[in-house]
Structures are given as structure tokens and as C-alpha cells.
Amino acid sequence: MIRVMNLPLSLFLPHRRITIIGIEMKNLPEARKTILRRLSELDLDIMSLMTNAALEKDSVYTVSVFIDSTDKDDATLNEVVQQLRQVKHVISVRAVSSDIPGVAVEQFHDEYHAFNMRILIFTERTLGGMLKGLYNTFGDKATPAFLFLIGTQTGREAARYYASIFSDKQTCLKIHELQAHAFGYCRWARIIMTAPDEYEIRFEGLTECEILRGFKTGHTSHWVRGVACGVFSELFGGEWDAIEIKCINAGDDSCVFKMRKKKATP
Ligand SMILES: [Zn+2]
Predict the structure, then answer these.
(1) Which residues surround ligand 1, an ion (CB under 5 A)?
(2) Is domain 10-110 in CATH 3.40.50.2000, yes or no?
(3) What is the mean pLDDT of residues 95-102?
(4) What spacing in Å lies between the alpha carbon of 129 and ligand 1's midpoint?
(5) pLDDT, tens digit, for every residue of 200-209?
(6) Separation of 205 CA from ligand 1 center, angstroms?
(7) What are the backbone angles phi and psi of residue 243, rounded to the nearest 5°?
(8) What are the domain boundaries of the chain?
């Protein structure tokens, strides 16, 4: 069974009114405990609750709570806001209900970060539009080459970042494997060393190939294959081949890349 994380950033629920309550507070364990207790005591239909990771002690801790406010009038919501403002260590509270019925878009946070970096989110529709648009515009020869090239540069950039934090190359590979899953490139990934200077990467549910299902056949990963090539080339030096030997669009169960360091030419 696939477990889906529905990020509470942008929701559409026709015929429902959704209100987002944004809370800023001191980043203290006591404050975090108190606000969660207070929220559970209030008569709220909480649909989702998103909190900032409590990383640095002096930072501001934030919580955004999505509530179904279909049956709540503005006076009741104001009362909720007033009560939350009374909680110790709370800096500010505001409640926003969308003017568009059934729509709730998180606007409390100005930036989203993961792994100490600012991130942006691509939906499969955005990525699909980009990939299919490239194929339709530039054709079957130029598009894979272009995707592989930008993937390679992206992979090199990622590997430089991993290497700036971790000195061990195998740890960098493990981080890449975990990030591929956590950032939605696939449902899971495994990187296995098969011989010296030779690895295999297995992806379950590789997003790039799933998006192209029914649109392209054969071995269809060029962007993520380029990313893998860039990561290995940057981490281990030299130039690496990244060949997709299995693909869901060629009838296989999963997508598998064979990574091999190219022999240096004398
Ligand atoms: Zn594939």
C-alpha cells in the first residue's frame, strides 16, 4: 500500500470553508507542548497541523493549523484567535479564510526549507508539462540529450553540497538515495555497489518515468539518469556512464540504472 503525505499547503475541498490559523511563538519545548495542548482543548475540527522543525533555540517556532470552519462564524473564529494569543510564549496569531469557496492556500510562511536549503515544489503536472513540452518541441533526439545534460549539472551541484557536509563518499551516496525518496523523485531508491567502480541504482515508482507512461516507451529516464551521472562523477572523479537497463516503460517492474566509471583513455 502506498502511504501518501498530503502536504497542507494548498487544499481544494468544494463546499467547505477552510481557515488557516498561523501561530508564531518562542522556540521552547514548554511553549510547543502548551500550544498543542491548548489546540486540542479548543472546539476545532483540525484537518491538518504543520509545524516548523524546532532547530535553533533563538528562532521563532511556527504552527499553521488548517481547520474546517464551515459551521463557524467570524465571531467564533475571533474568539479562538484571542484565546490562543493568551498562551504563554505566543508572539502572534492570525486566522485567514480564503475568499474562494473550498480553497485553502498556506500563506503564513514566506519560504520552505528542507535539508538547510530553500526548496520549491514541482507538481507532477508542472513536471509533466515541462517534459512532454520538451519532447513535443525538440523531438526524440534533442530532448533526452538536453535532459541528461541539465540532470548531470544538477547532480554535480547536489554532490558538491553533500561533500561539503560529509567527508565519506558512501555517506553522500546514502544521503542521495534518501533524498531521492524524501523529495519525491521516486517511492524508494537503493544504491548498491556491484563491483569496484560499478553500482546499480534501483528506483521504485520513478516519477520521471511514471509521468511519461503512455507518452513514451522504452527506457525513458534521462533527467534523473543525468542526475545520477553527475553525482557519481563529482563524488568519485572521472566520467561515469549511467545506463537505464530496466524501465517501467519497457515493461519492467522498476527502473534500474547501471553506473560504471569510464576507463581513462591513455
Ligand atoms: Zn524508467
Answers:
(1) 209, 221, 247, 255
(2) no
(3) 88
(4) 18
(5) 999 999 999 9
(6) 9
(7) -115, 130
(8) 10-110, 124-261
